[in-house]
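User: Hey, quick favor. My workstation is busy. Could you predict this chain's structure for me?
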Amino acid sequence: MKMNNRFIYGILSIVLAAVIAFIAIPAVTSKTSSTCGIARMKNAVPRGTLITTNDVELAEVGGFNLPDGVARQTQDVIGTYAATDLFPGDYILPEKVSSVPLSSDLSLNGIPDGMVAISITTQTLATALSDKLQGGDIIRLYHYDDDNELEPVTDIPELRFVKVLSVTDSKGLDVDYTTPPEEDEERQQTATITVLATPEQALLLTRYENEGRLHVALITRGNEKLAEELLGRQSEILLTLYGDGTEEETLEPSMDAKDKPSETADTDADAQSQRMHRRLRMKTVQKTPKRNKGGNAYV
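Assistant: No problem, here it is.
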């Protein structure tokens, strides 16, 4: 009985060795030795630079353990922009390139569809929250109207929860209040606030900025979950006020009727031109000499 078990174990060992030798090892070897073509960087390209034909090359590399999404053709890369500094020999992954030019303000590169970025001017230190706003803050905007004596301050439902994209000074440079200025460095002051808005919110911001003063109140900072919840509530408010946007938009002309070119004037001018042409033809016919049978001209 013991001999039979040893015999079976020996047979199984031989079969297992044969499987490894003739099936497993060749399969692994063929997989690791196979090659494929990929797009690879040939020259160094700084971040934000357009990638040209001279910057990439098609190279044959081992196909084993290649990163997912690596560019296989140079046409997939040429004409895109480097999203990070690229160096010779780098494999080109989707996150390393961008189909659109990069901005120094990264917040403007990912504006969702249907939204816009719009800037509002801070007219006083108090209206800008004493120069303490930062990108990513959720704010509420109030409108103060000097001409409205009964209710000068207005709570705007459309602008209760708005996301700040960036804060800039009077030169258009981003202001970073997260780090204190150096000892002899002048503190930057907020001049404009760029926010993420719907077209309806953008219209209201444009209107209220030119009809009084907009004051900013901070709602939350650094709480992503609460920020998403508040922005969702703002979307519900806008949906209640303006609908979901599926209705057909009725366009009205921005130009007054009195400013439009007169169609009757154009019609009168055409009629006058036609009358002048008819008169010229009649004069030409009248001045053309008539001839008798003998060929002599007479009038």
